[in-house]
Amino acid sequence: MKPTFLGIGSQRCASTWLFNILKTHPEIYLSEPKELNFFSRTILSQSIEDYFSNFEQPEAQNPKKIRGEISPHYARLSINRIKSIAKLIPDLKIILLIRNPLKRAWSGICYEMGGILYKDKKELSQISEIEYLLYLCRPRTKYYNSYYRTIKNWQAVFGKEAILVCFQEEIEVDPQSNIKRILSHIGALANHIPTEDLISRRINTTTNKLKITQKIPEPSELIKWAIAKQTFSDLIELNNLVGGSVDTWVKELEQIMKNGRLEWKLKYYFVSYILLIPEKILWFMVEFIRDIVLYVKVQNWLNKNEKEVR
Description:
alpha/beta; Rossmann fold; 15 helices; 5 strands; globular
């Protein structure tokens, strides 16, 4: 069975909360685990049949018609890979959750650097600014915050009506209305509302995810400026796209940008355009290979199924 919807992120934007909400709906079947990452990672090692098997419901007398997965890595996908996905599953509905890019970026950095890269070896307060900057400027980190790029790419392929964008800040204020919007978007009955306890529960906060008692530090002024520098142009385009709905984000980052110092700019450009050159080249090469592999696998799958139909 094919999925009928995808949650594509972004990272640290309540995607696990959404997964747990949707899991309670009687019409929706969600993959286990939550993040299959087939189109972003495992395409090199798994077949399309392997991927579709995650949505099979062999023991169900009445299989659920609404099926999906939530993989925040999909926010980073190239438009070529999205085109291959559309050939494979043309009627997909897409859900994208976003939040203030400064808060999202810092949450993601703390989660990955404290919980994955260093684990128990270093506390977040012991990580240097240059280490934070190196991580922030990696391509795979940058594209989580490129909301406009994500929306533009997915809309260009699937159409404007196929993608629903929700703001985490609005979900926190009025979760029930946003749950109803999401359910309606993917074709599920919107009158099924989970318990208040589940709705209000914060899941996978950075502190919980790291399993630490230390206080999450505030980003330094340099890191705030670097996040603003990295995301500002994309955010301007997003604001135009959503009719000024993120004006407050734009003004916040604009103010941070005004306070930039020459030494910050030199560090940022040194890290981005000198230290990270080898990693950037490798990352784009691997992504290009994944684009090609998915394209070939999709074409082979379509050809095979066309022959079977005949």
